[in-house]
Amino acid sequence: MLTDSVASDPVLVPVGTYTVEMRYHRGSFVNEARFFSLSGLDVMRSLIPQLSKFVVFLSVTSIFFTTLANAAGRTAEEKKTVQTVNASVLRAAKSYTAGDFEASAEYVRTAVKQIEEATKGGSQRLYDDLLPAMQRIEKARTLLDFEGITLPTFTRPKRPEDAPAKPKLGTTPEPGNPEPMPADGISFTKAVAPILSTRCGRCHASDSKGGFNLATYAALMKGPPEGVVIFAGDTVGSRLIETIETGDMPRGGGKVTPAELKILKDWIVAGAKFDGPDPAAPIAAGATTAEPPRPRLKAMKATGKETVSFAGDVAPLLVESCKGCHINAMRASGGLSMDTFAQLLRGGDSGDIVIPGNGEESLLVKKLRGTMGLKMPAGGRPAFSEDSIKLISTWIDEGATLDGASDNQPLQVMSQLAWAAAATPQELSDRRAEIAGENIKLVVSTGADLTTETTEHFYVVGSAAPATVKLVAELAEDQMKAVKSVVSADAGQAFFKGRATIFVMPKRYDYSEFAKMVEGRGIPNGWSSHWKYDGIDGYVSLVATDRDEKDEIEARLTSPLVALAVATRGGDVPRWLAEGTGKVIARRHGNTEKSSRGRGVKTTVNRELVEALAAMGNSKQFLDGKLTPEQSDLIATDIMAAMLDRAQKKGFDGLLRNMSRGLPFEKAFIQSFEATPAQFVDAWKRWRTGK
């Protein structure tokens, strides 16, 4: 409910080998958790998504992990009840980590019902034994909500009335006597708690948006990490009142009425006293009404009648001005991430930011205009022009529809694809050459000699010897016969939608550094070439020296060139499809670096494939990229070998054709194979394993 309304421009503070971006707010520096290497490279930022996924996985395991309560002195029935509830919570945990969120939610619902039945007339000790499970259920709701599963609000049952009163904060009431009703008649539990629960509970009771939780009186008075928000007797200095009066809070829902605001002010003026038996009890217990769960907005596909394109008009504006805070951010400001369309619709700590059909009332537009809370973009960035704001408002008025490939496609890729779709092959070629010049400077020292070669299909650049760069360019054109065996095109340059870039590195160290600097990732030891396509830029990077044999360089070129050609067939071609195709075609053309090593290599690959299959529990793990790159590539190659077999080749050709015509991958796949990708992969696995 509460956010900083005034903050300074960021200050870069050196910490070890990194710089931490800090902002000064209300007398202290707040760590914005944005890291940059002192050399100015965004390596850490690009690694965060992968690290975050790993940390979230560990957190989920920790949150759900449950043990039996201390059984000493418990009846057999109580022990069984606790075991049953904990078993449901544990099953929810296992389902969540397996990616089956619907099943996880069902187990959570079961646990809630079990708790409700168990606490009806139950004892205090049973309630206390079940309390850890209740806490885990509350956290599980938040995690499942993030995955698109909305559960009813869970309110902990009241602890049995025979519970001894706990002392009030800062006082020592007599044992058994709860704090009496304040003399002024303003009750926290009966008057204040219902307002906070109804108006603020979704973000700050069921969750801790912005690091602030007011689920209990004790938590409310403690405030967020920035400091307390309620000063007894002082409504002017209490940030709770300030944010309500300025209209900054609550967001994404109902407003605090004048009558409710007066109650909150009068309560603070009277000393912000507590009149319940337990300051750590949930405020929802004193609420008279429960807030219904917020319905999640669903992505609506564009009809074609819209005057504003999200992918072509709105996404580029957001990517340009919101990057670092809400897009590609290490920690999304205000809990609002806009990396994808789905996340944009999910909103942030303030709730939904778009109201389809009503642009001017949408929080996104109000923030851009500065009519609600802190004007965006913040941090000294240029404000949106009136024309840009009207464009966004019109897009919302027309239904806030999506014309990109998928609501899970990164906005940065979506906007690039929209630009690329409207660009000519020459415009794409020129842009790629410009990007190549910027990227090569990251790994080649200033003043070093660079050699460039331009051919019909490629722009080749590198710090290798001029003769080597020239040879790579010639061999790349020779390998177009392998590309053409898979991908057809009406014009030569259409194979890559423009000339593809080829980076030629003379040392493996340079090749590895290029991946770190440009792509923000490490390269497996066995790699000597790879490809990348992000919607605009498409390139192959490889190691090549004047000591390499011609066939060695050919072997490094074929697979990534074929993969890149496949990847450019559509806006959301999965990496496994392109990579697997490239490896299969390279093998058929005899252009693999391992092909000359004989039978031992085939035996090793088969053994590694068996291990990869064992690691793949189901098709979802593979399709969602949950396996290691090496495991994923082995499985992808074997799947594509089956798909490119004569019996399936017609379906594969249809898939590429459908994607080239603009169909999203999933729809194109179903039309071509009469099955979903998951069904196809599951069938392949059964065929491969015999079970």
Walk me through this protein's architecture.
- With 691 residues, this protein is of the alpha/beta class.
- It folds into six domains: 1-41, no CATH class; 42-163, no CATH class; 188-286, no CATH class; 310-419, no CATH class; 423-569; 598-691, no CATH class.
- Helix content is 47%, strand content 7%.
- The chain has helices at 43-64, 76-97, 101-118, 124-146, 188-204, 217-222, 239-245, 258-269, 310-322, 341-346, 363-369, 386-397, 411-422, 425-440, 466-478, 480-484, 508-519, 550-567, 575-588, 599-615, 619-623, 629-643, 649-660, 665-673, 677-689; strands spanning 11-15, 18-25, 28-37, 451-454, 458-462, 500-505, 529-533, 538-543.
- Strands 4-5-6-8-7 form a five-stranded mixed beta sheet, sandwiched between helices. The chain has a three-stranded antiparallel beta sheet with strand order 1-2-3.
- Helix 5 crosses helix 8 (258-269), helix 9 (310-322) crosses helix 13 (411-422) and helix 23 packs antiparallel against helix 24.
- It is globular, with a radius of gyration of 30 Å.
Topology:
Layout: E1 11-15, E2 18-25, E3 28-37, H1 43-64, H2 76-97, H3 101-118, H4 124-146, H5 188-204, H6 217-222, H7 239-245, H8 258-269, H9 310-322, H10 341-346, H11 363-369, H12 386-397, H13 411-422, H14 425-440, E4 451-454, E5 458-462, H15 466-478, H16 480-484, E6 500-505, H17 508-519, E7 529-533, E8 538-543, H18 550-567, H19 575-588, H20 599-615, H21 619-623, H22 629-643, H23 649-660, H24 665-673, H25 677-689
Parallel strand pairs: 5-6, 6-8
Antiparallel strand pairs: 1-2, 2-3, 4-5, 7-8
Helix pairs in contact: 1-2, 2-3, 2-4, 3-4, 5-8, 9-12, 9-13, 15-18, 18-19, 19-22, 20-22, 23-24
